[in-house]
Design brief:
Helix content is 38%, strand content 21%. It has 16 helices and 18 strands. It is elongated, with a radius of gyration of 28 Å.
Length: 435
């Protein structure tokens, strides 16, 4: 016997039921983004490998260990399944000269790929919502994107998500801090773990983000970046905080909140929760004013954030906030030669009027079809036998309204002309709403 082929580890099927919850979530997100003037952009899943090496950096865990990269056997081109969305969005911005036209507020939704050890909230194929703005240099756009997050948590009915905030200053300020950081850690290099030693001369800022408990005392006492910032960087950071204070949004300044790449600057922020174990960050963002120029474009201020869909859906489910899915409007039951010829025309006529119809396929007795109609979640059964078909009528039977089974009086069935069945259904829906 042949072996069953399983899905790739860490790349999961999203089955009916769960997939419908995803769609409701995505509709909420699209509405939220539209309310802030952000417009959709759809990006390729596969990009040239050099894009990520230039954007993310070759001496990073993502590029060194996690990317799904391959050589196109047809033309020898090095390609990579995107591990994140910002690089591709910037590539599209430059390629199509979007920022030349006007400042841009953009968003994308879709799959990302990283070869990590699968665990709760972290998969090898995962989904992100990414939000990017280009052409806005002031602290107001940073603050807007932070306030956007607070509104989304409210829209999704989530609480317990806290805001952490920091500033990375500018490249020259970080360079001075970097030298002092290296000198500081060199004094006690034997106390560093292997990962920290590897990063000491390539990416020392990331050492501050280590969770190793044996290094925490040393990290707490390390030189702070904020002590190396100039007046302009401090003013930008204060501008962000002032908007948040005026909005009454609580936050915590976390000096250990860092990014390891040179193009990041000024504001960085994360929304975190203690309800997801070690994977507590549900949204992370900040400014990256240097990336557009680094990838070959003109200097362009930029700010953005990304959030993990799987982590947010887990929080929604654990909070008992799964969205209520709307059932189908009509289950169409039919039996007999004349009925089977009329039934497809009735179904299409109802759909023309905006009524959702689940058409019974596969034959079977009226009794078995009605069992399926009742189990389908439909509000009505439209029943057609040869008697109805020959009279140009259908039998309309209410099954439930607003998700609840009707009492016997409300479930009374009646014969209705084919020409009037859609009107009858719409009138019953209105009666239920008024009740």
């Amino acid at each position: 016997m042949s072996q069953h082929i399983q899905s790739v580890r860490g790349m999961n099927d999203i089955l009916p039921g769960a997939a419908e919850f995803w769609e409701v979530f995505e509709e909420t997100v699209r509405s939220w983004l539209k309310s802030y003037g952000y417009r959709p952009i759809r990006l390729p899943i596969v990009e040239p490998t050099p894009l990520f090496k230039r954007a993310i950096g070759e001496v990073t865990d993502i590029v060194e260990k996690e990317m799904y990269s391959f050589i196109d056997s047809l033309n020898g081109e090095p390609l990579t399944l995107r591990p994140e969305g910002t690089a591709g969005c910037v590539r599209a911005l430059i390629q199509h000269k979007l920022a030349v036209q006007q400042p841009q507020r953009l968003y994308y939704m879709g799959q990302m790929f990283r070869h990590e050890r699968p665990q709760k909230g972290r998969y090898r194929q995962f989904n992100q919502v990414g939000v990017e703005s280009f052409g806005f240099a002031g602290p107001d756009i940073d603050a807007e994107q932070i306030l956007m997050g607070a509104r989304l948590w409210d829209d999704l009915g989530l609480d317990g998500i806290k805001l952490q905030l920091n500033t990375l200053g500018q490249a020259d300020e970080r360079a001075r801090h970097r030298l002092e950081l290296i000198r500081y850690f060199e004094h006690d290099v034997d106390l560093l773990d292997e990962e920290a030693k590897r990063r000491l001369y390539t990416n020392p800022l990331r050492i501050l983000d280590s969770k190793n408990p044996t290094m925490q005392e040393m990290i707490v006492a390390a030189p702070r970046l904020i002590d190396y910032l100039g007046s302009e960087s401090l003013a930008h950071f204060e501008g962000v905080q002032q908007v948040l204070r005026d909005a009454g949004l609580p936050y915590e300044i976390n000096p250990r909140l860092v990014r390891g790449l040179d193009y990041y600057n000024l504001t960085v922020f994360e929304w975190v929760t203690d309800r997801l174990g070690a994977q507590g960050t549900v949204c992370a963002g900040g400014r990256y004013d240097g990336l557009v120029e680094q990838l070959g474009g003109k200097p362009t201020p930029a700010c953005g954030f990304a959030m993990g869909v799987e982590r947010l859906l887990t929080l929604i489910q654990e909070a008992g906030g799964e969205p209520v899915l709307e059932g189908i409007d009509v289950y169409l039951v039919h039996q007999g030669e004349a009925a089977s010829r009329l039934a497809p025309r009735v179904a299409e006529g109802l759909r023309d009027q905006g009524i959702d119809v689940l058409f019974h396929c596969g034959g079977g007795s009226f009794k078995s079809q009605m069992k399926k109609a009742d189990a389908s979640g439909a509000s009505f059964a439209v029943i057609i036998g040869d008697d109805e078909a020959n009279a140009g009528e259908v039998t309309l039977k209410p099954l439930r309204a607003n998700g609840e089974k009707q009492n016997e009086q409300k479930r009374e069935q009646k014969r209705v002309s084919v020409d009037h069945v859609a009107d009858e259904i719409m009138n019953l829906f209105l009666d239920w709403e008024d009740a």
